[in-house]
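User: Okay, second chain of the day. Same drill as before: sequence in, structure tokens out.
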Amino acid sequence: MIAHLNGKLVEKNPTYIVVECNGVGYGVLISLNTFSALGSTEAIKVFTKLIVREDAQILYGFATTEERTMFEQLISVSGIGPNTAMIMLSSLVPEEIAQAIQSEDVPTIQSIKGIGAKTAQRVIIDLKDKMLKMTFSSENIFTQNNTNRFDALTALVSLGFDKKSAEKAIEKVSSGEESVEKLIKEALKIL
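Assistant: Same drill. Structure tokens below.
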């Protein structure tokens, strides 16, 4: 198994990167959260998970080990494949997924594209005990109850801003009651 790649970022797209390690370019599928975390640096370290199928060998990449662990937990659930897990990790950060599972928040999980009510319930049943054991090292200012901040962050990242800078800007302008549009406008003034 390829546990991580440490090399030069030669191509970067929202769902796909190429990392060159000692003259070999590795194609890696990534989530939008990983895309945001990579920034514009050339030298990167990406944690990976290799999925071998009958017709392909696909390398999935993650900015943190927590995100990779969440991916592994998600694909262990019946009915959730690697692509659905990547959509989940693009829609919510690992901490938010863990919080939704721990609090049995079916609507949050079901709000992810491709996840129905039965699959959301299956995720909660299969992973609730495992989520209690998971720890997250990164600080997450976007709590489960504040989707406006998360939506504003997603919009700013899709506009090309660095995720960490966008998080700081939103934190500065947010008092907790703003609409998504107001958060974006105020954060853009800072950025």
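Residues 117-133 form the longest helix (17 residues).

User: Thanks, on to the next one.
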